[in-house]
Each structure stands twice: as structure tokens, then as C-alpha cells.
Amino acid sequence: MNSLEDKYEVVIGLEVHVQLNTQSKAFCGDPNLFGTAPNNNISIISLAYPGTLPKANKTHIRSAIKMGLAINSEINHQIYFDRKNYFYPDLPKGYQITQDNQPICLGGEFILKLVKGERHIRIHHIHMEEDAGKSIHDLSDKYTLLDYNRAGVPLLEMVTEPDLRSGEETLQFIEEVQRLVRYLEISDGRMEEGSLRADCNISVRPKGQEAYNNRVEIKNVNSKKFAKKAIEFETVRQIKIMEEGGTVKQETRGFDVQKGITIPQREKENVHDYRYFPEPDLCPMEIDEAYLNGIKAEMPLLPEAMKAKLIETYKLSDYDADILSREKEDAEYFMHLAEEVENEDLSKLVINKILPWKGESNTIGDFPISSKNIIALLALIKSGKISAAAAYSKLFPLMLNSDGKPAAIAEKAGLLIAGDLDLEALLAEAIKKHPKKYEELLKGKKQFINLFMGEIIRSSKGKADPEKAKNLILQKL
Questions:
Q1: Cα 239 to the chain's mean position, in Å?
Q2: Whole-model pTM?
């Protein structure tokens, strides 16, 4: 299929739904909480009892403006809400309160830094709306169960222009959105919990053709990796249809995670099918300059500015600064510790040990080693009482399960460097083990220095000073 993929171009546009971390829902005071028992965060308003009326959530509006400012959108000064009409059991009102003609943010862009260069992904608009409830199909053979806890939760929907060209670009775009909402602290961006979801619109056309072909929408993809896989499968599927002389049907499909394929769900609706009209129960609102300037003053450092600060203030390499600035909490954690210790050793420890511990399921706030003991660990290495290798590979894992001081833990585990070791004897033992490589070393092949250093340190069970061991080997040369 590779030769056929060279013949065609995939065109991708996304609708990214960001669930906000407000205290209450979009248009009522029901709590906005994840993980509670079904149908607990509800009221007569979120269940659409007759006679109930919505009320706008000011944090919903402020979060939308922050998102727009972060990507250089134009902020609409006059906004109103609309009704999007469709019937589905998890939509209590029979319509969704959203924005159609007058979204709060217009334009903007994300810049993806790819191996092949930068890609500018334009944003068409960002609008505010409410989420639907959740239909549960796998707890009963006869019935679909409904949980309305999510009904009315505030969302931002970001609609891109059809600028993405691959599953890999899509994955990176979603990562950038995830990163930004966390920096802005408007959402946790956890796709596995539904805080961030993407609808992927995909069409394929022959290279050089300007007109778009029919598009397929893959709904509610809740993983960036699944988005990539779904797009890659759908690209091949559409190319095959076109090669066989067929026409791709405009429809909505889902992604079967287990089989790795897309499956048809329903024909794709057009805008007129939703019968949009202005929401009569919410009055139009005006955003004045004073209000907008107040939000601008609250804006935090964004990812690129944070990276620049790490390079300029803490003298980090571009690579280290890039890794540490991917998550706001990681950068702030590093900067907090950097006030007490040298940045080079600290960045290595955070990047090589602490971030791998964190992974995707933990946060820096959960890290079991106190800042005080991290500083003490680095001081212990600098003092020469323990080698960096022993500190990172042996002492650090022990510290994860103990709240004791690093020096005491290292002493108990026998990891401290001993001053009375016979390094000559340990080197002689290593030479006896690798006589031919020692001959090569004496002939000038210095790549074997590390081999003999490693043998000395292993024989001493980590108690030999690496610097002294290296100096001894160099003396032999």
C-alpha cells in the first residue's frame, strides 16, 4: 500500500472537546466531579425538568478566553448561545446549548515542531457548549443504561482547519492541546477519563487535487494513540475504495480498539439537520476591554516561554529544557529545587529518574521523596561519598521506599565510597580477567578505560571512587 499512499493525500480536521475543571456545570450549580456514583451530580436543571432555566458559568467563559489568548485567537466581544437540536437518550433536553454563528474565539494556530520542520495548524474557532450524559451499553444484555453525571459539564470545542496530513501529526497536535490546557490550568486533559476527546474528520484525495472528497468522521476518540491508529486504518480503507473505482460514503464511524478498525455508526449529519437557533433563555453578553485585560494579566507562562526561561535562567540545554517544559508541574518542580542545588546534576536526576517514575499515571505531587532529601542526595554525590552510578541505580530506588536521610540509607546499604580500598589489587584482578583488552588499552585504545573502571567498581561492590579508579588506569597508560 505504500506506493498507493504516495499517490494520495490524506486531509484531516479535528474537533477537540476539552472538558473544563470548573466547580459547577455549564448552566447550573450541579457539581462538576469525575468518578462519583452514577446519577449523583444531577438536579432538576441538568435533567431538564419543565420550567427550569439555565444560567451562564463565568469560569466557563474565562477559560474559553484564556484558551483563545494562548493561541492568538480573536476574541469576540459580543457572544451568545444557540440550541443544537437532536434526539439521543443521553441528552435530557433534546437539544444541546452551544455556540454556532458567534463563537467566543476566532482563528489562532498551533505550531508543531516535527523532524521535517515546523507545521502551522490553523484553528477555525473555539466555542463553548455543554456535554451530554453517558450511555452505558455493556452492563446489560437488554438495556442501555444512562448516567447523567456528565450532562451539562462545561466544554470547549476547538475546530481546526483541515491542515493535518497524517496520524502522527494528529497525535502530536493532541499532545500540544493537552499540554496547553494543563499550563492554563483549565483542564487536566486526561483522555482516559474523557476530559479531552477528539472527533477526527478524514478524507483522501489524489495528490495535486484541490477539491476535498467526502469525509468520514470518527467520533469520540479518547486516546491520542488510538486517534493515530484510526486515521492510519481509515486512510488505507478510503484509498482501497477509490482504487476500486468506488466513492467514499460520508458517514460517522467509530474505532474498534480491539480489532484496530473503524466501523460504521450512522450517516453524517449536515449543519441544517441540527436546526440551530439562538438560545432564548440566555441573554447575549458583551466582553469589554477591562474584563479582557484582567484575564490577560492572569495568563501564566506558556510552554515556549517556560522553555526559554529554563534555558536563559538555569542554563539548561535545549534538549533538557524541552523535556522539563512539557508539563508545567515538572518545570515548576525543577525550578523549586534549582534554588538550592546545581542545575546540571539536578536536571539529570529529574529527567532520568523522577520523570520515569512519574510516567503517565502519577503526578509530581505524589513523588514520595521529599525535596529536602533530593537536595541531600545531590549533596552526597557532590561530596564524593557516593558515586553517581551507585546513587542513581541503588540509593535512589531505596529512597523511594523510605523517608530516611540519604546518607543513613546509603551507609546501611553499604553504598558509601571506602577510602581504604586497595585499588591496585582490584585493577590487577580486572587485568587478569581481560588480559587482551588490557594490551589493547596500553596500545592506546582508550575505549577500554570504562571497561576497567566498571570492573573495579563492581569488584568493590560500588565502594570504589570512580574518579580515583580512572586516574589509576590513566597512570598505567
A1: 31
A2: 0.86
